[in-house]
Amino acid sequence: MKHRFLTLISSLLLLTACSDSFLERAPEGNYVDVTYYTSDDALEQATAPLYNRAWFDLNSRAIVPLGSNRANDNFSRWGAPEFTNFKVTALSENLANAWTGFYSVITMANAVISDVQTKCSNSVSERAKRTAIAEARLMRAEALLKMKQYKETMEDIDAVLAQNPEEETAILLRGKVKEANGQEEEAEADYKLVTEVNPFNEQAYLYLGQLFINQKKLTEAISLFDEAIELNPNFAEAYKERGRAKLLNGDKDGSVEDMKRSLELNPKDEASLNGEFKNLGPKQEALPGIF
Predict the structure, then answer these.
(1) Which of 101, 163, 198, 246 makes an SS bond possible with 254, Cβ 3.0 to 4.6 Å?
(2) Are the C-beta atoms of 211 and 189 separated by less than 8 Å?
(3) pLDDT value, residue 277
(4) Rounded to a whole number, what is the distance in angstroms from the first to the last CA of the chain?
(5) Does residue 32 come out as left (phi exceeding 0), alpha (psi in the -120 to 50 range) or beta?
(6) In a 3-state reduction of DSSP, which class is residue 240?
(7) 251: left (phi > 0), else alpha (psi -120 to 50), else beta?
(8) How far apart are CA 155 and CA 153, in angstroms?
């Protein structure tokens, strides 16, 4: 009898202690969606996974066979040779991981945009919100571009440029879309526009030089890579591309020197050829134009 009485009293205390909103209360001392987005700094941190974890499935392994192997820059009979031999099927694990990686980026970008629009407190500034949404849109555009979803890519790019017509990363991505669609003159105009908006944007010189290589304008391409390297003496990709242009232009010795310098500056390139794979770096390195 005593046990039943204590049980009844305990039940009554629990019922009276819990209000109707008990299950809707945010927990104290723990971060959840309704308690996290309370400052500009918190919002900036929320976009960080877009620059590393989101790309893991692509960068952990798939990027090498899809890039270097398919371009015949790298070949190993044990390291996904089907990408070099053009014998890839839908059963390829690397191909599946690549698609998973792209959709991971898109999913995370969608989540960031939704959270910014619905879960930020009043203490988060409008500028921080616009920046976070722009980051998410540009990263989503990067993934969509690699998936050759050009219409959807341009929707994100146009949305960013509507807020800031001189947003450099968006203009460069627009140039990449135009180049992919065979609109080389328009792509060239976009790359040159970025050099006018910001003469110190080495990425614009790199893209323009790569376009000129495709157009067999090798001397002009080398000059553009020279410009990129002058702006950033540690720009490994510029050395690599200049080495490629020199090789195509008949300068084998100069090409070797540039390729060596590229590997010195970016040992991850050499490591990737040996089967070691890393992820993207900090966000400022991944999309420098919006910071």
Answers:
(1) 246
(2) no
(3) 39
(4) 70
(5) beta
(6) helix
(7) beta
(8) 5
